Amino acid sequence: MQNAKRDVIAAIATAPGRGGVGIVRISGANLSTFPFQISGINPIPRHAHFVKFLDDTGEIIDEGILLYFPGPHSFTGEDVIELQGHGGPIVLNMLLVRCLQLGARLAEPGEFTLRAYLNDKLDLAQAESVADLIDASSEQAVKSAMRSLTGEFSNQIEILVAGLIDLRMLVEATLDFPEEEIEFLQSAKAFDRLANICQQVSQVEQSAKQGSLLRDGISVVLIGQPNVGKSSLLNRLAGEEVAIVSAVAGTTRDTVRETIQINGVPIHIVDTAGLRDTEDEVELIGIQRTWRAIEQASLALLLVDAKHGVTSVEDTIIAKLPANLPLYTLHNKIDLECPEKLAGDIYVSAKLGTGIAELKSLLLSVAGWQTEMSSVFLARERHLNAIRLAKHHLECAIEVQANSLELLAEDLRLAQFALASISGGFSADDLLGEIFSRFCIGK
Ligand code: GDP
Ligand code: ZN
């Protein structure tokens, strides 16, 4: 994929369906004659031109704005043209077909961003944040994705990589002069610098963990009999944010999972209500899926009516849960009847909102969310793994210190490579394919 053919690609960049304006985007190495062919004018770069878009017979398809961004000053780094027409699916398709007639081919998902990456307009972490920004499910996630997109995350990583390169140069230089090596490294404060970098990597890890929570959230298994107040509790927890969640177009909702948000952290609720004995094949598939979700969950919440407490029905389900899954018992409807409180249990009234704030902080703290943390980057599992790997090698480096300079040099090298993979320094083609194929078309 590194040698991607720089042929002309085109796609409808706006969301499917009808809207006021719809955009067809075209990118290619040389599009200088393209605007004239589609509109009969030669545009001034980066100026908005009100034009008529014409088909091959000269008949008008639509009228709208044409923008021409000659490379390299464009999103992809190539020549880019935007046709802003009326936002109807048929008219946009006609515009797209016209582009194909003029030599473009349909862009693959994420191909515009891939070209931006290959032309050094964005690094890999920034390219990923483009998709994360589009997919963001809360305002906090948008802000964090934006911090990654503007390069704040990449810059921090770059600074660490630069520090590691300096250190490696020092250590590798001493390999050739074994007599003076230790004093040389000590006078250059090499080990202080190593400890310092390791500590900064830990900080970035914390921040990336938060970002990954914002992006992926946590799973909570909800156990509760009918009428104990599950729906009421979910609505209460979600508060006004639920409207935002359901407004996200294309949010996948299968029957066993419901997503609410607390402080912008997506909480995926896995409902065990459907976990009953059955012969029905469709239901069985659903039940299997529920169990798979349970295996990946962060905690289980057992919701009971405060009047009755835990009964044998709940006991049966609890017995089947993974032994290491933390379990909290939540007594609901304490406005009606409040039993003597057991330490470690939670007491709420979904109806009145009593105890809900405590429940929210419990969920967030189990998730590992630190409310005081500000500059969070919307990190992915891939980034976290790279940071963890780098940290591991740095810790090894600290351990061997001067005992073996060869090992020290090797650990520093591996740490540098791990960190650099975040911005794409040494990325394999299959990684790029994996990342960009998940984009939407036209981005
Ligand atoms: P689910 O079947 O577990 O989802 O339970 P629902 O959320 O549908 O609630 C069942 C009934 O209990 C409804 O009539 C709710 O209004 C009521 N309910 C839920 N939570 C409370 C509560 O905290 N206090 C009181 N008094 N009623 C509640
Ligand atoms: Zn319900």
From TrEMBL:
UniProt: (6S)-5-formyl-5,6,7,8-tetrahydrofolate binding residues: 25, 82, 121, 443
One GO term of the biological process aspect: tRNA methylation
GO-annotated cellular components: cytosol
Cofactor note: Binds 1 potassium ion per subunit.
Function per UniProt: Exhibits a very high intrinsic GTPase hydrolysis rate. Involved in the addition of a carboxymethylaminomethyl (cmnm) group at the wobble position (U34) of certain tRNAs, forming tRNA-cmnm(5)s(2)U34.
Family membership: Belongs to the TRAFAC class TrmE-Era-EngA-EngB-Septin-like GTPase superfamily. TrmE GTPase family.
Protein name per the record: tRNA modification GTPase MnmE
Species this protein is from: Sulfuriferula nivalis
Gene that produces this protein: mnmE
